[in-house]
Amino acid sequence: xxxxxxxxxxxxxxxxxxxxxxxxxxxxxxxxxxxxxxxxxxxxxxxxxxxxxxxxxxxxxxxxxxxxxxxxxxxxxxxxxxxxxxxxxxxxxxxxxxxxxxxxxxxxxxxxxxxxxxxxxxxxxxxxxxxxxxxxxxxxxxxxxxxxxxxxxxxxxxxxxxxxxxxxxxxxxxxxxxxxxxxxxxxxxxxxxxxxxxxxxxxxxxxxxxxxxxxxxxxxxxxxxxxxxxxxxxxxxxxxxxxxxxxxxxxxxxxxxxxxxxxxxxxxxxxxxxxxxxxxxxxxxxxxxxxxxxxxxxxxxxxxxxxxxxxxxxxxxxxxxxxxxxxxxxxxxxxxxxxxxxxxxxxxxxxxxxxxxxxxxxxxxxxxxxxxxxxxxxxxxxxxxxxxxxxxxxxxxxxxxxxxxxxxxxxxxxxxxxxxxxxxxxxxxxxxxxxxxxxxxxxxxxxxxxxxxxxxxxxxxxxxxxxxxxxxxxxxxxxxxxxxxxxxxxxxxxxxxxxxxxxxxxxxxxxxxxxxxxxxxxxxxxxxxxxxxxx
Length: 535
Fold this sequence. Notes:
With about 525 residues, the protein is an alpha/beta fold. The protein folds into 2 domains: about 160 residues, no CATH class; about 260 residues, Spore Coat Polysaccharide Biosynthesis Protein SpsA, Chain A (Alpha-Beta Complex), CATH 3.90.550.10. Helix 2 packs parallel to helix 18, helix 3 packs antiparallel against helix 4 and helix 15 packs across helix 18. The longest helix has about 50 residues. It starts with a helix and ends in a 17-residue tail after the last helix.
């Protein structure tokens, strides 16, 4: 059965690859030749911009530079380690040959001992620290009765980095058990802290039965307020080197902790951004739910591999989001962050801006810190979630303002492009719909006063074929690429509806700008429809 699935996935990938290549060739030919010959050269460049975006292309190049530098370091480091290994081997072999070649001299015994038994005290101490495990029997419980062993902050060895796990939850009964289970596979139960933000269901009871630390708030404070409360109640930044914030609908990859600790070995790293992967369980979803998951998968893939990978390079370090679903903050940096300022609907953008503005350290992101997040099941919940995220982003921009920095040097073009692309995409789609109504309605519609003249004016500048090909084809070609990478042929079906999803995102991106300057938020939240993530 596995062989059949493998062959089927391989064939689906090949079909998607061929389809993507054919669409790209057709689209480039149309956009750069057909449209240009009709006098729409500028229009052809506009389609290129709408499809890919200047920021995405720029950060893709930066990401390739980062990848190239990493490859060079790996090769050079490997050769250096090989040379050192050869030198040590040759030196040890020389000593053995010298000693065994003739009668031992006065220093023979000392030479043998130096080559075999002498241990550097610093090395011995480091090995002992690396082998240290969980809490000792003498550990005492801090506030609330939780066991939080004191560790030395800033330890270099991955095993020495202590991390507390915070799971904020509000009415998350269907999914809280899965999030806790994934955390307990990687952490001891005394290092896991669930804060129930005035939940009206069994969220707190389910968490308590697992044996982890549970803090229940009597009033709804919102996610940021819940985080602030649990950090303060258990003094987490005083007892741990880092704090992992894990959403209740998210499950950690088995290699997450190893990857996070590896990145925290760099003392310049203030936060490790989680690498989000959309949970793909098509049998549990309706068509709309599968469409949302497929669209999110493509969006996350492009943003993380083509944009954030470049933004989190140590030579750029301009990332503007540490996702709040599964990311780790170094405690020394978290103590300097205002987690719960007034007037914001979400916390993660604000916490990231705080890191950047206060220069608390750089943000690291690699694919070895994966976590699987549950996407909304309905278009209504999707729109509410995206609206909340977008509002929180613009509120954060309003709160922090502009300050002289490389961060803002790259953030400003991104903001400009988001606004322009959203506006042009909506306007172009509206014009296309305007023309389509006339084409479908025929003479009765075209005879409406001024309507026929309007359609003629639009089509003279923007032919219907140009709108359809210019907008839909490149978008669908990107979906074909992802269908090949993921080996999910169903994406070829769902990809037909991705352009309307982009229009929803574009509308919300513009809709929330005035709201960010006219309305304050209290941060309170309401969970969308959830489905149990336990197998």
